Queue: 2 jobs
Job 1
Amino acid sequence: MHFADRLIQRCHERNSRLVVGLDPHWDRIPASFKRGFAPDDYCGVISGFLTHVIDVTHEHAVAFKPQIAFFEQFGLAGMEALVKVLAHLRVRHCLVLMDGKRNDIGSTAAAYARAFFGQGDQPAGFPSDALTVNAYLGSDGIKPFLQSPNHGIFVLVKTSNPSSGEFQDMKFGSGASLAQTMAAAVRQWNEPTIGESGYGNVGAVIGATYPEHMAALRREMPCSLILVPGYGAQGGSAQAVKAAFNEDGLGALINSSRGILFPAEFEKTGFEAIREAACDAREDINRIVALRDL
Ligand SMILES: O=c1ccn([C@@H]2O[C@H](COP(=O)(O)O)[C@@H](O)[C@H]2O)c(=O)[nH]1
């Protein structure tokens, strides 16, 4: 089924716009959880911890966003953990937005597309429904990711980090910034992919830490899904992400990683604290878009 249509359907089913980020910061995984494993069992700890996280949060989440760097840092053990986590997400029928920020020349981008989406008889190494991409190599690096309507991409438009303005806010002769120029390209790439939901498979990443940019970028890309990191641990609030939503109360997916995975209450109530963090984030976001039951 068409990626964006599936995602919008999931927003309705869960009454949620929350994406749970799967970023296993090794030093923040509670010592009480690690105790049951050998000290160097990176695969066991990471896959075990995230499996529990998925079990307690999936009813509140539209999708999960594994950040691949947190797995890659452990080499083969990390890759094994990622494969296990992805298998568990499939068992739970969860949508996977892989945060890999990939791109390259066309032929290499095509290999990345096969790695995450598969192709024909070739299964994906890391099966995902969507992937974050860096589009600064141009459209030939984007097209390989758009071969199947069942998969989507989120193009970096305005990232949440403190120095994102160094390049992304630079203005061209037209007066448009680099981020606005990228947003215009996203709109163009997205148009032929729009599904029955009214949303297409080429989305954008815009950080919650730059609310002053949000409304104008949303206007530039009315039919794109916007993936919004930076809510929670980076200081972005629900109020700051409001302008990412369309009037239908849909179209934006708000990610929280550390804010959900590592609540202070874990030592007292264990994974129940993680369930509560996801539930609270979902409600906080729903309240701000002023749409409760879709
Ligand atoms: O502009 C961007 C793009 C991606 N990210 C990623 O999102 C999460 C945020 O984690 P938190 O713990 O909720 O801060 C992380 O995986 C980043 O790599 C981003 O933050 N900003």
Note: Strands lie at 18-22, 63-66, 95-102, 130-133, 152-158, 202-206, 226-228, 252-256.
Job 2
Amino acid sequence: MTPFRQPLGQRPELLRMAQVEKTFHGGVIALRNMNLTVNEGDFVSLLGPSGCGKSTALKLVTGLMQPTSGRIDWAGEDGAGEKGAGDLGVVFQEPTLMPWARVMDNVYLPFRIRGVPFAEVRDEVLEVLRLVGLEKFQRAFPRELSGGMKMRVSIARALVTKPRLILMDEPFAALDEITRFKLNNDLLALREKIGCTVIFVTHSVFESVFLSDRVVVMAARPGRVIEELTVDAPYRRSEAFRTSAEYARYCRLASNALHRATGEAA
Ligand SMILES: Nc1ncnc2c1ncn2[C@@H]1O[C@H](COP(=O)(O)OP(=O)(O)OP(=O)(O)O)[C@@H](O)[C@H]1O
């Protein structure tokens, strides 16, 4: 059984942040005593007010930025291990595509960086484009695509290497509401097919509840986790879930937690 089909309490641990602190030059304490465990198959949203350190937490998980103190440990490593490039896929708010390259070449990029010839991974590139619904646009250039389509390319590029963990930093924040709903639905369908683990940063209570099985609420100054809400509603979630009393109840709980987080920061 893929881990995300297992009950939350029974999934193997993937990643643990323990008492992580990040202080930037100039003395800004972005995170202090940040504790978070992510298990294989989890869809975890980091929800919190602006400046509470959500993006900093993601950057620390990538290993491109180091904590000032505390530990970030990965299952199966002794704690000091470097992440293999195939272990992480990252999607940002801006799709950050190469404008001069066709869709298929943008998606091929993570392999090209590793020196893998296109012929060897052509099938993987086309398969992931099919999964995000863009197989007909494989030869298009980014300028020919809508904002939502560019984001799909960015997601395809993050998924093409089949990473253990996908990090998403407000990927849909710049999109209109209808496109955002559609991409939320499609992201869950993709997860259903691929079974990946996701850490998803968002400001949106509605988005976090719709997507996640765990909503982790953070407070600012200093940034840290203050509450966690388990969304115990079955996947695959549909429009019926989006309009259900159950969804409204979870949104109310998450919204109250966010108010407490903001109140703590005031
Ligand atoms: N490179 C940096 N140098 C100094 N301060 C920084 C740096 N990066 C982030 N910060 C500060 O650290 C704090 C946390 O920033 P971060 O971007 O992680 O928050 P966030 O929750 O993702 O915010 P938002 O939701 O607005 O994107 C903020 O006060 C920010 O100004």
Note: Residues 24, 26, 28, 30, 48, 50-56, 203, 223 surround adenosine-5'-triphosphate (CB under 6 Å).
